[in-house]
Amino acid sequence: MARVYNFSAGPAVLPQEVLEEAAAEMLDYKGTGMSVMEMSHRSKAYQSIIDEAEKDLRELMHIPDNYKVLFLQGGASQQFAMIPMNLMKNGTADYIITGQWAKKAYEEAKKYGKVNAVASSADKTFSYIPDCSNLPISQDADYVYICENNTIYGTKFHQLPNTKGKTLVADVSSCFLSEPVDVTRYGVIYGGVQKNIGPAGVVIVIIREDLITDDVLEGTPTMLKYKTHADHGSMYNTPPAYGIYICGKVFKWLKKMGGLEAMKQRNERKAKILYDYLDESKLFHGTVEKKDRSLMNVPFVTGDTELDAKFVKEAEEAGFVNLKGHRTVGGMRASIYNAMPVEGVEKLVEFMKKFEQENI
Ligand SMILES: *Cc1c(COP(=O)(O)O)cnc(C)c1O
Question: What is the pTM of this model?
Answer without folding.
Answer: 0.98
